[in-house]
Amino acid sequence: MRDTVRQWIREARRIAVLTGAGISAESGVPTFRDAQTGLWAQFNPQELATEAAFRAHPQRVWDWYAFRREMIAKVAPNAGHLALAAFSKRHPGRLTLITQNVDGLHQRAGSHETIAIHGSILQDQWLDAARPCCDAGALQAGRPPRCPVCGNLRRPAVVWFGESLPAAALDAAEEAANACDLMLVIGTSGVVYPAAGLALAAHQRGARVVVINPEPTELDRVADHCLREPAAQCLPALLEH
Ligand code: BV8
User: Which of 138, 140, 225, 235 could hold 83 in an S-S bridge, CB 3.0 to 4.6 Å?
Assistant: First the structure.
């Protein structure tokens, strides 16, 4: 079935790619729904990745992100990330990459136009609207750091559950999903919205949808084909010359 998908890729004028945590799995980054390890095993990521959790337990949530940042700093993009970046270099403008991941690995692999719809774990932002005293260059150190004048906290620049996605990124992602004639859905369980809705939109607009995932997903129901393979193994073969 890889040959059919390779043919669909060759035929496609515009390809949209939607990736999730699974594409970073072979780099050694546990997926969002993998069992959490060690200290974090007692917490459900869905409960930690919320503004309410951060306001209630700022140090705990800050430390969870610091732990994830440390882990991400030690890993590298894998063959799946690299194959997508190489394809875009060979076919400028034909492939639009949308990711739910916050780990920056697509960008490090060379996919510099990546639409990061859930933000970035590598940046911080103010928890409350910045006041004139809030200067990111003059923070009071801490877990989390804060404005020394008004106490405004720093938080990771990611989209938490219950928060809207950045409008410009979501608009660009929706435009790509509506305009593509092929969507590759890679390494996502298809549980989180509105990200998963992008695959439904592509399907409704008549695009072919291919799911690449070793496990069944919530999006298999709109897939024209499911490649039950790990991303780093199959993407180089699918996307090579
Ligand atoms: C919002 C950043 C609007 C933080 C994340 C309908 C419409 C709108 C909202 C909702 C809705 N229904 C429910 C909601 C609420 C909620 C939601 O979707 N909940 C789910 C759990 C039901 N959505 C939201 O809250 C969104 N906000 O819509 O706001 C709004 C605003 C105000 C008021 C009202 C409405 C915000 C969602 C964004 C949350 N932030 N990340 C952080 O990282 O800390 S989401 C988080 O989950 C990660 O980004 C992750 O990427 C994402 C999705 O998970 P996956 O990537 O799919 O990862 P997962 O572990 O689930 O699966 C991994 C897959 O990889 C598996 O299938 C596995 O088999 C596969 N795999 C493993 N190894 C490999 C592999 N695949 C390939 N190769 C391998 N080697």
Answer: 235
pLDDT, one tens digit per residue, over 99-152 is 999 999 999 999 999 999 999 999 999 999 999 999 999 999 999 999 999 999
Q: What domains, with CATH codes, occur in the chain?
A: 2-28+76-118+165-239 (3.40.50.1220), 30-74+120-158 (3.30.1600.10)
Kind of pairing between the strands at 115-116 and 95-99 = parallel
Task: Give the Cα separation of 149 and 107 in Å (integer).
Answer: 35
For the chain, report the end-to-end CA distance as a whole number of angstroms.
18
pTM: 0.96
User: What is the SS3 assignment for 125?
Assistant: strand
Catalytic sites, residue numbers: 118
